[in-house]
Amino acid sequence: MYLEFAGLPASGKSTLSDALKNHLSKLPGNVYSRDEGIVNCLRRRDDGIIKNMMKRFPSRLWWPFMGAQFALPEFVNRSSCHLEFISFISKVLSESNMDPWLISSIWNTIIRSFCEVELVTKYIHGGELVIMDEAFFQRCFTLFGYIENRVSDDLIARYAALAPVATNHIFWIITRPENCIERLRLRYLNRPSPYELDSNELLNNFKIGNNVLKRLSIALENQGKNIYRIKGDGNTNEAITEICKISSRLQTQLK
After folding, report:
1. 126, 133, 132, 156: which is closest to 144 by C-alpha?
2. CA 180-207-164 angle, 5° bins
3. Do residues 108 and 102 lie in contact, with contact meaning Cβ atoms separated by under 8 Å?
4. Higher-confidence residue: 149 or 75?
5. Concatenated DSSP letters of 94-128
6. pLDDT in tens, 89-99
7. How many angstroms from the chain centroid is the CA of residue 251?
8. Rounded distance, CA 211 to CA 171, Å?
């Protein structure tokens, strides 16, 4: 089973997901971060004698030698069951005004999410939990957050109906776009930033993204998903306490 965290860049997803992992690690059962969960799943997958032997060593030693084809079976398995979703993504991107590099980046993250969700749902054992700081709830922001034209309710509803969201529990970290941009500025103060837009354009994109996630949360709640709205602007310790309280109520479902 996995939980997903979602929110704007620099909203606090990693900080709060790490705090939840530390909290749940004190309880019975195995709890993994996204990276830990993926490594464990890959180790459990049968890739033949030689690769299986390599995977006994630390992942930093064998991961670079596996090649891009290492995750191909997972993408094929998961995406083949969601061809209509793939077609929907293709149509949205082909009709957008986004730069080719951004379209390529969006495809890369969507393909990665297909692979990761397939690995986790297939190889995680009962009683184990993976805390994903991003998956298909977040990918809706990835897809629609940088589209210049207003994103219609029909597009959001279509995404919610087709996206392979394989968890019933999503923590949405709601942080003001202005605060996210300031955090990004400080984070990349002395190193290259992956966000190449100017502040005004980025602010507009983040406002669109927040609105997209708001509408998606309502659509998924109508499907029976649980969306936990966590304030990311205030005291971090208070947000951590709230998340841990929610997780305590979920313990019977996380076993």
Report:
1. 156
2. 90
3. no
4. 75
5. HTS---HHHHHHHHHHHHHHHHHHHHHHHHPPTT-
6. 999 999 888 88
7. 22
8. 16
